[in-house]
């Protein structure tokens, strides 16, 4: 019985949080996009004085970078130095 | 007739509809494939495209489509007697709304989760999309204007509901902050918020000092008010200005700050409201006192207006926007569409059914009913108030004191109406921006420019001096157009589904028949209203209604002709369902 109640509460919680989770994810994604843009600003022609260091991050964020350029409508990586796909 | 029996028959038909008809549609017409890779999986991005459990998605879908409209429409439509309203709600849900909501979901799933507007562009052409946007624009303008009046009216009639509704705002901001910034779970905070609201409601119902009653402050109904408007008109004016300022802020803030947490509180209210009403029905076992059909209702004919007055609750074009906008992007398996889409429509039908029952059991006898519903205008103006009283009578059966019950029911209605109001202002802003992009007017794309246009135009419509229900009811001047444009949108959606089915080489009668029925009723209602009622050569002429009505009618005919020629066209390339 208690299990059923717990399940019901979990279900209710999930219904409630669904649209909220989406919004939080969207805000986070926007923040991430901005961060990536600052890191790789070179490719839209904005000089990046610390590109040497930001490129160091590349192995750590290669997967995120790939998702990002796909989302931005670029099928292949726009940076010739970064070949994720 | 006994009201419990009526509810039981209605619910039984809903169950049969889901069990058999939707199964038939799912297997033979839409041919749902459990192995189809839905957009939620194909484009999974953790934000818009997220595979979601079907029960969770149903809950979300239902709370998004259920608002004040399935209460308002039926509460007015019982004017023609309860039987026509019940029949249209029950059969409209089973044969029209079910296939419509289900169909828009499936078509969108098979087309990368795109919205019906985009699909109109793809299936019929660019022009159809822009006309679609214009119809939605006029629709949301009406919703803004009418719902502002509805809320102001409830605030004035039930002053004890003001404080609890206003307390909801800081509570919602607090929940948004707790969840977003501190990653808290939201169930407990939103239940606490609800409890606080209802506690305030109980106190406000008890102590007059907590009731914010503008009319009383200005010296009662005969008081002078401001700008020489009289107390009641002044109260309307003040509330509408407050509401417009509120929607401006609410629709420009990030959604997680105010709108969404408010929606959580409101979804509890939906559950609480439905629970109270159906349980109250069981406990009070009221008899129906309203007439089966009302022969005195002859100032406005039920045919075709009944089918227009009850839009949400029987079939509504707005549901297609939710189905194809968000739900389709989160469908885990294609076979879940039947439960989410069809049963979502059934949920709305259940709400509309109890709304009818609340109103038709309110009056002590048929004469009292006829006195209250003595004309269509009286029904439109008083329908919602009657629902609140009828619903509180049902709640009274559960031992909730009448005063508290009516306060809580009016809070529920105001909350629904307020959610609809700020969602539709937001929607209006998006559409204005999209039209700005389409017609290359970049200024319109700016948030504050678009919101200002939305709010100012709605406020102007509300405050037109000669509203049919007194000052501040300018929205009701256009309200006769709401039902028609909403049904039109549903008709266009059904037409698009039919085109899609035809291009797949399947039987499309299942959507074409409700479409023809709906379009016939809508166009019939519009043509007769525009030309025999509102045009300047008639006694009841109204330039505003004529202009807007003629505009919508023109758009509707245009879309219909384009779409029908697409439907009839022989040289269409067949679609591949797996494309």
TrEMBL record, chain A:
Alphabetized InterPro entries for the sequence: CC_star_Cory (IPR047717), DUF7990 (IPR058303)
One Pfam family this sequence matches: DUF7990
Xref: NCBIfam families: CC_star_Cory (NF041419)
UniProt protein name: DNA helicase
Automatic annotation (TrEMBL), chain B:
Residue ranges of every copy of the CstA N-terminal domain listed in the record: 2-364, 377-525
Keywords linked to the UniProt accession: Cell membrane, Membrane, Transmembrane, Transmembrane helix
UniProt key word Membrane: yes
Domain of life: Bacteria
Family matches, as InterPro entries: CstA, CstA_N
Lipid bilayer topology: Multi-pass membrane protein
Subcellular location(s) per record: Cell membrane
Pfam families given in the database record: CstA
Transmembrane segments: 85-109, 130-156, 162-180, 187-205, 225-249, 270-288, 300-318, 339-363, 404-425, 446-464, 476-501, 508-531, 543-564
PANTHER family: INNER MEMBRANE PEPTIDE TRANSPORTER, PEPTIDE TRANSPORTER CSTA
Family: Belongs to the peptide transporter carbon starvation (CstA) (TC 2.A.114) family.
Protein name (database record): Carbon starvation protein A
Native source species: Jeotgalibacillus haloalkalitolerans
């Amino acid at each position: 019985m208690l299990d059923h109640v717990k399940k019901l509460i979990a279900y209710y919680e999930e219904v409630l949080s669904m649209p909220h989770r989406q919004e939080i994810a969207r805000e986070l994604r926007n923040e991430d996009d901005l961060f990536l843009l600052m890191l790789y600003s070179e490719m839209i022609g904005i000089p990046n004085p610390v590109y040497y260091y930001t490129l160091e991050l590349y192995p750590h964020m290669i997967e995120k970078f790939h998702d990002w350029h796909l989302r931005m409508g670029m099928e292949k990586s726009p940076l010739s130095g970064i070949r994720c796909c | 007739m006994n009201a419990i029996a009526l509810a039981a028959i209605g619910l039984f038909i809903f169950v049969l509809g889901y069990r058999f008809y939707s199964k038939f549609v799912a297997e033979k017409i839409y041919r749902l494939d459990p192995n189809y890779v839905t957009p939620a999986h194909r484009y999974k991005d953790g934000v818009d495209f997220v595979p979601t459990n079907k029960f969770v998605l149903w809950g979300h879908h239902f709370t998004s489509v259920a608002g004040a409209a399935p209460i308002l429409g039926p509460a007015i439509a019982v004017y023609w007697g309860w039987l026509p309203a019940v029949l249209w709600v029950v059969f409209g849900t089973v044969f029209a709304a079910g296939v419509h909501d289900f169909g828009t979901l499936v078509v969108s799933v098979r087309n990368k989760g795109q919205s019906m507007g985009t699909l109109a562009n793809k299936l019929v052409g660019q022009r159809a999309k822009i006309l679609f946007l214009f119809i939605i624009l006029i629709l949301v303008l009406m919703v803004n204007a009418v719902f502002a009046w509805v809320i102001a009216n409830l605030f004035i009639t039930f002053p004890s509901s003001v404080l609890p509704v206003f307390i909801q705002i800081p509570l919602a901001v607090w929940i948004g902050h707790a969840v977003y910034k501190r990653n808290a779970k939201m169930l407990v905070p939103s239940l606490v918020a609800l409890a606080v609201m209802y506690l305030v409601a109980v106190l406000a119902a008890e102590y007059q000092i907590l009731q914010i009653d503008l009319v009383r402050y200005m010296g009662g109904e005969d008081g002078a008010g401001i700008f020489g408007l009289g107390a009641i008109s002044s109260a309307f004016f003040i509330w509408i200005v407050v509401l417009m300022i509120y929607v401006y802020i609410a629709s420009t803030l990030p959604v997680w700050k105010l709108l969404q947490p408010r929606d959580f509180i409101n979804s509890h209210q939906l559950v609480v409201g439905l629970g109270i009403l159906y349980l109250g029905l069981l406990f009070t076992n009221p008899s129906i006192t309203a007439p089966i059909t009302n022969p005195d209702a002859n100032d406005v004919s039920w045919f075709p207006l009944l089918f227009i007055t009850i839009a949400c609750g029987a079939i509504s074009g707005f549901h297609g926007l939710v189905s194809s906008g968000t739900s389709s992007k989160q469908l885990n398996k294609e076979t879940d569409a039947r439960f989410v889409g069809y049963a979502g429509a059934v949920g709305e039908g259940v709400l509309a059914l109890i709304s009818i029952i609340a109103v038709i059991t309110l009056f002590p006898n048929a004469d009292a009913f006829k006195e209250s519903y003595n004309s269509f205008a009286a029904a439109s103006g008083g329908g919602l108030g009657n629902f609140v009283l009828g619903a509180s009578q049902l709640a009274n059966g559960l031992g909730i004191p009448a005063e508290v019950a009516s306060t809580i029911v009016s809070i529920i209605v105001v909350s629904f109406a307020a959610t609809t109001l700020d969602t539709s202002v937001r929607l209006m802003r998006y559409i204005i921006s999209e039209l700005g992009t389409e017609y290359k007017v970049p200024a319109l794309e700016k948030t504050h420019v678009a919101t200002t246009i939305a709010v100012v135009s709605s406020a102007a419509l509300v405050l037109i001096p000669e509203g049919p229900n007194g000052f501040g009811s300018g929205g009701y001047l256009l309200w006769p157009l709401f039902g028609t444009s909403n049904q039109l949108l549903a008709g266009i959606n059904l037409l698009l589904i039919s085109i899609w089915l035809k291009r797949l080489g399947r039987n499309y009668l299942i959507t074409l028949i409700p479409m023809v029925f709906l379009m016939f009723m809508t166009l019939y209602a519009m043509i007769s209203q525009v030309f025999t009622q509102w045009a300047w050569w008639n006694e009841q002429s109204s330039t505003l209604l004529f202009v807007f009505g003629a505009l919508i009618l023109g758009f509707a005919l245009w879309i219909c002709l384009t779409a029908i020629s697409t439907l009839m066209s022989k040289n269409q390339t067949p679609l591949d369902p797996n494309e």
